[in-house]
Each structure stands twice: as C-alpha cells, then as structure tokens.
Amino acid sequence: MTKHNHIVVREIGSFHVGGHLTRLDGLPLRERVSTTGGPVHPIDPNGEIIVGQLYVQYVRLAEPRADAPILMWHGGGMTGVNWETTPDGRSGWQMAFLRAGFDTYVSDAVERGRASWAPFPQAYPEAPYFRTAKEAWEETFRFGPVGSWHADPAQRRSHPGLNFPAECFETFLSQSVPRWGCNDALTQTAYDTLIQRIETGAIVLTHSQGGNFGLTAALTAPDRVRAVISLEPSGAPDPTRQDPGRLKGVPHLFIWGDYLDQHSFWVHARPAVERWRDALNAAGCDVTWINLPAQGITGNSHALMCDRNSDAVAAIVLDWLRTKNLLA
Amino acid sequence: MTKHNHIVVREIGSFHVGGHLTRLDGLPLRERVSTTGGPVHPIDPNGEIIVGQLYVQYVRLAEPRADAPILMWHGGGMTGVNWETTPDGRSGWQMAFLRAGFDTYVSDAVERGRASWAPFPQAYPEAPYFRTAKEAWEETFRFGPVGSWHADPAQRRSHPGLNFPAECFETFLSQSVPRWGCNDALTQTAYDTLIQRIETGAIVLTHSQGGNFGLTAALTAPDRVRAVISLEPSGAPDPTRQDPGRLKGVPHLFIWGDYLDQHSFWVHARPAVERWRDALNAAGCDVTWINLPAQGITGNSHALMCDRNSDAVAAIVLDWLRTKNLLA
Predict the structure, then answer these.
(1) Which of A103, A265, B204, B240 is the most exposed place for a label (fewest CB within 10 A)?
(2) Prediction pTM value
(3) How far is A218 from chain B (nearest CA, A)?
C-alpha cells in the first residue's frame, strides 16, 4: 500500500471455469434486429451453446502480504458486486482486502452476472426467481420487520438501530440478479474446479448461499482451502453424511448479525449451520463463531459487507486471519 | 506506471445507473429450497422488482495521464468481460488503457451480466436469444467461413490467416450472455445517464452493438463525450433523422477488420455505418476510418480486442488519442 491508501497492482483480469458445450434442438427459427434501425436477420437458436461456467475476476498486487489469495463468493440472487463499492458509496470489502495485502478473486457463480445463464427448460429444468423488493427488505436481508416494506421510501420502516443505509436500498437492490433453485450441483462443481486452479491454496470468504458452497469446497479439498470465512451462511454440510474430521487443518470463522429470530427464513435456516459447527467442534476443528451483537456491535443486517459498519466487520475478519498466520 | 508494468490504483469500485422499481402482479406462489439440504420456504414472486439498470466498474488511477476516463462498452450478447483478459490469457484492453494512463469504466449494459435482466413477458416483451457456437463462429465474429463450425475442435475450420486464437474459442464463448432484441431504448437511456454522471466528460470506446449506443450518446451529449471510438459498429444513427453537425467537436475513430464481405450479417450491417460516416464527413466533422487490412494488418476477426494482435490494435487507438490531445 502506498500513501493515500493507494494499491500497486500487477494485473487485473478474469477467467471462466466449468463451462461445457451442450446442444439445443427442435427450437423454431426467429428473426432479430440487432441494432436500432438495423436490418432484420434470421436466427437459428438450435446448436451448441455453453453452459455451467463461473466467472472470476482477480486483482493481483505487486507485493501481496499474504501467501494465498482470498476468494469472495456472493450469496443467492446476487453477484460479486456485493463486495465492491457499498450502497452508500464507500470502499467495499474487495478494496479492504486489497489494501490489507490480499490478492482478491471475486466470482459470479453459475447462472448469475458475468457467468451468464442457460435457457429453461432446455438446459435448466425450471424458471428462475426474481427477487422482490419486499422479500429483500423483510426477509432475506432483514432491513425491516415483516410488513414494513413500502414502495414509497417515506413509508418504509426499518429495524430500530439498523446499520444498513436504508436510504440506499434501491442502489443495493440494483445488485440483484435472478436465481434458480436447481443449480447447486453445477455451481459446486465450478467452485471446486476454481479451487483446484489456484495452486497456492486459497482462503474462501462467503456470504449467505455461498456459505454451503465454501464449507463443502473445504471438505472436498482440505489441502487447498486455507481457511473458510462464512458470513451468515444459509446452509451447511450434513454431519450425518460428511466427515468434519477432514477439516482439522482448516480454520473456520462464522459471523452473524442481528434480528435473526424475527425472520422466518433465518429461523429455519440457521439450525443446519449450528449443527455443522457443533460437529466441527466435536471433531476437534478450529472454529470461531461470532455473534456480533454479543460483542456490542449491533444493528447488523444480513448484508454485513454493505452495512455502514462494513469496515469494522472487515477488520474483525482481518484480525482473525492474522491470528491464523494467514496475513503478515 | 511503475516498473514491471504495475499500475498505482486509487480505487476499484462500481455502481449501477438507470434502475427503477416496477411491479409484478398475478403470478402464482412458488416454493423454493435456497441451499442444498435446506428447508423449503414459500416465495411470492409478486411485488416490486428493479428493472433497467446498467452496471459500471471503474478503476481509478492514483495519477491518470488523461483528463477524462475511457468508457468501454461491449457488444451484443456480451459483457464488459470482453475488455478483460484475452481468451489466450494475455492482458486485455482494460489493462492496456490503464497502463497507458486512463481511468477505465467498464460497463455491462442493461439485460446483461452484472446489470441483471428482468422477467419476460412481464417486463421485457419477448424471450431472449442464446448465442450458439455456430452463430458466433461463422457469422458475428467471423472466425471461419460459413459452414466451417463443428463441435469437435479438430474438425472446425477457421479463416486462413485468422488472428483470433481459434483453440481458445470455448473460453471466448464462455463470455457470452443471452440478449434481447427489444431493449435498445432502455439501454440507450442508461448509457446517456452514465455520460451525465461523469462530470469531466468521457471518451467512449465501443464494440459492435455498443457502436450505435456510443454514436447516439455523442449526439445527445456532444459537450460531455470527448471522443468516440467504434470497433466495427453494427449500426449507426440515421442521417435523415439526426444532425451530424452537432458533432464537430467530437472526434470519431472507426476500425474494421477482415472477412467482412464473406458474412451476411456484416454485408447488411455495414452500409448504415458508412452512411453515417459520410454524413459526419459532409458536416465537417473529424473522422478517422481505418480498414486494418488496408494498413497491412490482416487476419482480424470481429473480436478485435481478443485477437492475438490485440495489443497492436490498442496501440493504434492510443496513438490516435494522443493526436487528439486526449492522452499525454
């Protein structure tokens, strides 16, 4: 890091992993106009298309202070944009980790963002879900209590003491993308492929739906995953089917915010993660479980990296990484 | 730029422009499993969703050598990834322009990549097109003659002397995203909004379908657009409806590759651009029109920034910008 928090960058670049050609047949011909006022030309939608790829954008520092990069895996219905500029216009976690000395690999998982998506029902078996503002506000992201959403910002209510900048909600919602409920296996395969591609090993930082992918990736490649950091994972491996003993060499950090007992999705989702935590502990693994409000850090939404105190939460993660000797 | 081609970066970040809430009604309830093994929870797809936003990722240098940033606008069925690492793994044009001293603003247009897309037929009137490998190979990108595509790489034929790395075709195809034929107005509005957001003014660099958006953005805001660089635009404004005289202060550069007369799409698309060029010239505007093969640079596909000689073509653009006093 230079003066003024500048960073010296070796390379910004990207790649896809996991794509394969698949063939579509039997679709009717169409006609398309490709540009305003341009000619009409015929389109045959039949033939090979590419399916199942995941996108990764990396920023490599000239002189990283960590041996292994940090992989940043977003949650459901979102993309890697979650780690970029916060909704209220501050530097996001990608910059925080770059400034701390990590090379960053921010991905868009299969079906989302720059990873693209494939036709349904031909390639994906079902139609996607589009996030409604109400669902984001009242349920997944816990910005306000059930029944508090309103299309008119002046009539919306947020949780008392909320750290998320409620006035920037539309900015945050702009980061949403459609999601499917049928692509977990395709996504896990692509993430596992990504892990194998990074020969130094990697630290995996996940949010929400990314949590299960990260915890599972560590089980699959405990020699490659140097640590797993799970921000409010919405799921976890099943200890009756997976052996947490494989993870003795992989430190785990879990971080949780507020209002979890007021939202049905979280009431039902968290026990699976607690069960996995307990299994990791019983197997003698290195587990840190942080409830932020218990530490006096209150008002945290599900979007921990987008809340007003995002820098303070990032600092907790960075301190933990130093204690694990993963950052100089 | 420091030694080893490193760059000193002030900030990497992003934002969306142009999104607005729109309401969906009358859709049936669904049930969703959000993570492998997780609980089933009900989803109401009705309510407000966000539509029409465009994504922009910027990299701001500590000490840019240009007064205005360069905006990089991809073509149809693609995203800003086109400007990143080339299919054969070299630094792409984003890095080339950063190393030359420009702040870069790489966008994903409405409906694509990190801009997201909206449901059809509720928000968009029609279904999208998925790019087939055959269409990419034989038509839009002109990698091989009509009839030369084969799913087996060993049986594909490319144009003799082609500069695109044909062995990396699947890597390139992984960058594809679905496209619609109905969103030009929404996209133009978002791009025009982006232009207004950058107070220094901006240089607009476009590829293919991005061409018409860039040329039109200059007409709308000739005070803000400092130059327009169009790599093989697939369309252009209509001089019987638009006044090219507004553009006397905006230098224009057009660059074209090879094989254009062998592919029906291009035979039909290019005359509109030539007509606009002629109108710009007749109005006394500053127009540079480069046919690369006429300069002895041959084998160029439509993916000029992804071909093996991408650095050489970038250098032509950078030299032109210097002659226009837009780069020190």
Answers:
(1) B240
(2) 0.97
(3) 16
